[in-house]
Model the fold of this input.
Amino acid sequence: MKLPFSPTPRIPIHPPVYFAPRAKGTLTLDGRLDKPFWADVPWTEEFVDISGPDFPAPRFPTRAKLCWDDEALYIGAELPGNEIWATITRRDSVIYYDNDFEVFLDPSSCGHNYMELELNAFNTQWDLMLTHPYRDGGRSVTGWNIPGLETAVHVDGSVNDPTADNRGWSVEIRIPFAALMETYCKEENPAELERCYPARTAPRKGEFWRLNFSRVQWLVDIVDGTYQKRLGKDGKPLPEDNWVWAPTGLIDIHCPEFWGFLFFTEAGEAMPIPEDELRKLKLREFYYAQHAYRKVHGCYCADASALGIPLPEYGVTAECTRHGFELWCPGEDGKSEVVLRSDGFACIFERE
Done:
């Protein structure tokens, strides 16, 4: 089956890193970030255009912060800007038809079974699970809800009133760790399952997830005292802006290999990205080359050295069938293998 594979990104894979400290105190969500709970929590870098830092800077700045305790992950974000509007009030609608804030979480760093959450200025939620990226033939499960999810929005101004002193809006999110148990890759290798999803609900110090944020912002005009999406010559709304923490080099957020690393720490101390995760990122170069090769030749390439990418010192092997491929290389410890499949699943398997 031919997969709806996206083109090769324009930028190198260079995920940002965030070191989340433990939370201090208890959070009562009201959407405001100017309270003691958030005072010592660092901000992410300001968001950039999804296509990369060489594209025009966002019209409005956006940034986020995260912390955690034994029960939940906490996310705060501020979205300055004088264009505050929303139309959608029904949960699990397509929220990005409005301006919105979006969260993407891949606890296993495998690129499959990850979570997406979108909010607009009305605090309308759309939470869903992605079996795997759309480019790899994945599908979304909108009927899946995050158990125990709490969100709040604070508006500094007035929604849908261009005459108000509008300065922006902010969000707070609480995601219980227990809620993400349903996204576990239960059908995959048991050893990897235990490594990524131990029999508990909270991460430990030093563990990491993959994470990204996105802010969708439409161009608008004020017509008869209301915000209306700006139209092109064809009478249709102009494309929305996508501002993200970790750019993907494509107008497609569903490229989990580009997402940032979220490390769980005690006080925000720096930690290195594990070597095997860096090897996964190297295999992604061969993954994109394999799909490009198939577009030209009608099949995948069984020889990794023929894909035009310098082989790393630890080597890369390609194994192909008529319908797919596996790329693998030795793990850092010499007892495991880092594997990447044609459907985008990346994992670390213990050698038998």
